[in-house]
């Protein structure tokens, strides 16, 4: 067994480190609230006993486990409680799962993002289960007057073999709730897990397939009003005035006004991005009536002025420049091309790349570009708010509730303890719901209307409101010597308005002479995290380029990568390489084996790619046939190393999702602009992947591992862009440098 | 405003709304039946799919005034206890990720199987192509539709 200190008294430190976003973060916060006085216990409902902040046990042996983090399809609402239940030693069938409220005293890191829920939750969840089990054992030891180390547990039963006594957790729950929280607890050996590593069904499955209210947009309250926004039609414009004379007269309309999301002079935190700070709002009785009034509202806009704003990223300040003007996609690409050959900042340099390129036998060069992407969560942005002078109640889907709560507190001038945020299931997030300006908007609207309000964005509002995946460009150069050995590597990349460079990732560390540099271009288009931020472009560029280099030097693309990784393992270049070459090689070897790499069927074109991001490794082989000028994707084989897999079938589902999503964005995803106006505003113009274009088969294989789990929401997404590009090259003989790869798109496939 | 009497999931409902109101919003706002989802409002995503008689239709493009005495079935009324073969197959395959589009997927799939109890892959792709799943559960959806078809065949 593993003994772990529970570290009582370190609560404040632990909270700070979680906000800093790095380092060791253990979820011990519940310890502060889990010891209850006898008075509190007697006040509990007769049949339930709260053992700690994560769980309570009923006298019939049922266990309720709170799932702390927002659920957006990554299935952590099932997987996180599984971890608690395993250490607690209960039968999963007797577990009821509930979504925890936002409670910074009871939980830490209630975030959805960066594939971090399981990784960061792992130790805390295990301790929550293990310490509750220890309290049950302590209660039994006291009652039976036997040493606690003679008591064993299994599937919700406590047993003392020597005296032939046993009790259910339910029978001992009342006494356990009064036990002292142990200062040291024993965690299970990995080989003793009984629930972790087994496939368990989605705890919300029945509710989903029967259409029960689960999502924020399903929220209903008696007397609730519906609100929608109207924002300027183009980036680079701001609201000047509104003419609400027609809209106000329309049936069911209660009020029309404008709101400022953030006050002038407020220093925005990292996730406080809002494209149009002032928006018009229409409030009415029903969605359809408000939608009609939206059409009747006239707004006048004026150009924004360029500005520089100080922003705060968890205590670190940065200046955000927003230029004026109406931007267009054609200009964006021209700007990137001009700047790409101009200035750049060197981020890493190993050896002497200039000389190495000069002396190289051959230099291979290629340039890749990618457009802005919209998140297009199927559930449009929405939030419910009921704000009074005393308190604010908010219900809806969001990814960073703790940070949003701070933003709202500042905006309303209301203490955090008077704000209650309840998390609903997210109808997709992918990063977009980290930027919860709509929560603030809902609160301001409710405050003004003095009524409960549900704010709902139309699909068009959702898609044209900004916070996109940035547009990117990267130029790669590889120098090879006369023996076809890679001797120099250069990447110069940038984006609007962010760079996608990760200078210490593969193939850094594998090449003697290496140069990585980047640049950025300011824009008034807002951007934000989008599933595997920046990796979702740079993986495609890098892995497409390595395919081209492997071909140029006459090597098998998997063997070529494995040779580089061998160098990184045995004799790495440089001090800081952000990956473990053995684990990276491990997924490549596994995908090679499982895809039958050596035995490709006739008529099948095959591409491979691999990537490491968000602490996990993924490698993919994609098989396609080229028919009627389109790819028909037969099969994707995927190997993943994310450490211990908590819930294998759910993990497989998530890996499959990353692959399908990646193929869709690679082939079709694009939002373009003319004079600041998005060309796409709904699914008739924004092309999403549909069933027919998805792979016929996806085989996901996990590397067997006893390493603590890492994330899975993101890592299978970036490499598939390159796997399909490389497979399409095999089919057509044409390299794909510019996303989306299929420009001549049919909207309905 | 006008009065309508609608037969939904076997029950009669009286409502008084603007006749242009799409059934999507009648269901969601006026009857608090929120299983039917808003996704695009222009019949491009399928999240709002319901049955009008035996046909799968996009309720965001179905004005209440056009329904007449045709029966509407929503996800809430597809089965008594969530035990329609399609729902059961969805649970068995554990299809959903975020789950938002799944009611619409299930309604399209169940209408397909009613008309074509033994669909080919091509039939399934054709019927389901109007339903977007942003999370990318398409391979599981297809598997679940086939499983439900087999259940129907064997029962």
TrEMBL record, chain A:
Annotated Pfam families: MoCoBD_1 (PF02738), MoCoBD_2 (PF20256)
Aldehyde oxidase/xanthine dehydrogenase a/b hammerhead domain location: 210-305
This protein's name: Molybdopterin cofactor-binding domain-containing protein
Upper classification of the organism: Bacteria, Pseudomonadati, Bacteroidota, Flavobacteriia, Flavobacteriales
PROSITE patterns found in the cross-reference section: PROKAR_LIPOPROTEIN (PS51257)
UniProt-listed InterPro entries: Ald_Oxase/Xan_DH_a/b (IPR000674), AldOxase/xan_DH_MoCoBD1 (IPR008274), AldOxase/xan_DH_MoCoBD2 (IPR046867), AldOxase/xan_DH_Mopterin-bd_sf (IPR037165), N-heterocyclic_Hydroxylase (IPR052516), OxRdtase_Mopterin-bd_su_IorB (IPR012368)
Highest taxon in the source lineage: Bacteria
TrEMBL record, chain B:
Keyword Iron on entry: yes
InterPro entries: 2Fe-2S-bd, 2Fe-2S-bd_dom_sf, 2Fe-2S_ferredoxin-like_sf, 2Fe-2S_ferredoxin-type, 2Fe2S_fd_BS, Beta-grasp_dom_sf, Diverse_Oxidoreductases
Superkingdom classification of source: Bacteria
Record has Oxidoreductase as a keyword: yes
Record keywords, A-Z: 2Fe-2S, Iron, Iron-sulfur, Metal-binding, Oxidoreductase
Pfam hit, one: Fer2_2
Domain annotation 2Fe-2S ferredoxin-type: ranges: 2-78
Protein name: (2Fe-2S)-binding protein
Organism: Maribacter cobaltidurans
Organism placement in taxonomy: Bacteria, Pseudomonadati, Bacteroidota, Flavobacteriia, Flavobacteriales
């Amino acid at each position: 067994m593993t003994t772990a200190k529970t570290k009582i008294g370190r609560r404040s430190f632990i909270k700070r480190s979680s906000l800093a976003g790095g380092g060791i973060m253990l979820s011990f916060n519940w310890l502060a609230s889990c010891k209850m006085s006898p008075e509190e216990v007697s006040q509990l409902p007769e049949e339930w006993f709260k053992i700690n902040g994560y769980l309570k046990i009923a006298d019939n042996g049922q266990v309720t486990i709170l799932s702390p983090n927002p659920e957006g399809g990554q299935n952590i609402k099932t997987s996180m409680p599984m971890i608690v239940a395993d250490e607690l030693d209960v039968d999963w069938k007797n577990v009821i799962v509930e979504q925890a409220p936002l409670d910074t005293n009871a939980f830490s890191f209630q975030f959805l993002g960066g594939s971090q829920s399981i990784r960061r939750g792992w130790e805390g969840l295990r301790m929550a289960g293990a310490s509750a089990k220890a309290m049950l054992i302590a209660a039994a030891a006291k009652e039976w007057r036997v040493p606690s180390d003679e008591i064993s547990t299994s599937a919700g039963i406590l047993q003392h073999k020597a005296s032939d006594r046993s009790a259910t957790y339910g029978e001992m729950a009342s006494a356990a709730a009064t036990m002292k929280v142990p200062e040291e607890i024993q965690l299970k050996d990995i080989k003793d897990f009984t629930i972790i590593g087994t496939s368990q069904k989605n705890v919300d499955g029945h509710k989903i397939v029967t259409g029960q209210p689960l999502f924020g947009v399903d929220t209903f309250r008696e007397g609730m009003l519906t609100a929608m926004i109207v924002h300027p039609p183009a980036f680079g414009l701001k609201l000047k005035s509104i003419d609400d004379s027609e809209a106000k007269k329309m049936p069911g309309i209660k009020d029309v006004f404008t709101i400022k999301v953030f006050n002038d002079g407020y220093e925005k935190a990292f996730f406080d991005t809002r494209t149009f700070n002032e928006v018009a709002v229409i409030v009415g009785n029903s969605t359809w009536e408000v939608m009609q009034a939206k059409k009747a509202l006239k707004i006048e806009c004026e150009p924004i002025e360029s500005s520089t704003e100080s922003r705060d990223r968890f205590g670190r300040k940065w200046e955000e420049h927003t230029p004026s003007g109406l931007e267009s996609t054609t200009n964006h690409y021209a700007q990137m091309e001009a700047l790409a050959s101009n200035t750049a900042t060197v981020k890493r340099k190993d050896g002497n790349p200039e000389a190495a390129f000069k002396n190289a036998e051959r230099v291979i060069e290629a340039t890749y570009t990618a457009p802005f992407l919209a998140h297009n969560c199927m559930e449009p942005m929405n939030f419910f708010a009921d704000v009074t002078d005393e308190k604010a109640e908010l219900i809806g889907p969001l990814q960073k509730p703790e940070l949003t709560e701070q933003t709202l507190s500042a905006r309303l001038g209301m203490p955090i303890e008077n704000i209650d945020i309840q998390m609903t299931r997210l109808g997709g997030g992918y990063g977009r719901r980290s930027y919860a300006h709509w929560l603030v908007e809902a609160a301001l609207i409710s405050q003004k209307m003095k009524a409960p309000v549900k704010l709902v964005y139309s699909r068009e509002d959702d898609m044209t409101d900004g916070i996109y995946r940035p547009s990117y460009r990267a130029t790669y150069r590889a120098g090879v010597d006369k023996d076809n050995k890679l001797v120099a590597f250069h990447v110069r990349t940038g984006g609007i308005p962010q760079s996608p460079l990760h200078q210490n990732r593969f193939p850094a560390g594998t090449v003697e002479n290496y140069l990585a540099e980047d640049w950025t271009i300011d824009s008034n288009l807002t951007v934000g995290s989008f599933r595997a931020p920046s990796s979702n472009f740079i993986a495609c560029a890098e892995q497409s380029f390595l395919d081209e280099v492997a071909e140029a030097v006459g090597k098998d693309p998997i063997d070529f990568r494995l040779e580089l990784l061998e160098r990184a393992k045995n004799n790495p270049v440089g001090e800081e390489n952000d990956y473990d070459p053995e684990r990276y090689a491990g997924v490549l070897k596994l995908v090679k084996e499982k895809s039958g790499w050596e035995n490709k069927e006739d008529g099948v074109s095959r591409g491979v790619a691999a990537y490491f991001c968000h602490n996990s490794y993924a490698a993919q082989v994609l098989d396609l046939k080229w028919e009627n000028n389109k790819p028909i994707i037969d099969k994707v084989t995927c190997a993943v190393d994310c450490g211990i897999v908590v819930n294998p079938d759910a993990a497989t589902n998530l890996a499959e999702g990353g692959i399908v999503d990646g193929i869709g964005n690679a082939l079709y995803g694009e939002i373009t602009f003319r004079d600041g106006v998005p060309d796409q505003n709904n699914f008739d113009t924004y092309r999403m992947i549909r069933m027919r274009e998805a792979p016929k088969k996806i085989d996901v294989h996990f590397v067997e591992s006893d390493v603590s789990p890492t994330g899975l929401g993101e890592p299978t997404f970036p490499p598939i862009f390159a796997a399909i590009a490389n497979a399409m090259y095999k089919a057509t003989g044409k390299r794909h440098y510019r996303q989306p790869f299929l420009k001549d798109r049919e909207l309905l496939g | 405003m006008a009065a309508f009497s609608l037969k939904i999931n076997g029950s009669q409902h009286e409502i008084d709304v603007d006749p242009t109101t799409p059934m999507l919003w009648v269901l969601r706002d006026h009857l608090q039946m929120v299983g039917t989802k808003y996704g695009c409002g222009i019949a491009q995503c399928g999240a709002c799919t319901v049955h009008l008689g035996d046909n799968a239709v996009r309720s965001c493009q179905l004005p209440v005034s056009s329904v007449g005495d045709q029966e509407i079935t929503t996800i809430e009324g597809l089965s008594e206890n969530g035990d329609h073969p399609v729902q059961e197959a969805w649970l068995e395959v554990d299809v959903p990720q975020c789950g938002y589009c799944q009611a619409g997927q299930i309604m399209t799939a169940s209408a397909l199987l009613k008309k074509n109890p033994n669909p080919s892959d091509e039939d399934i792709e054709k019927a389901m192509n109007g339903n977007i799943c942003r999370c990318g559960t398409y391979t599981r959806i297809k598997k679940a539709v086939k499983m439900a078809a087999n259940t129907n065949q064997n029962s």
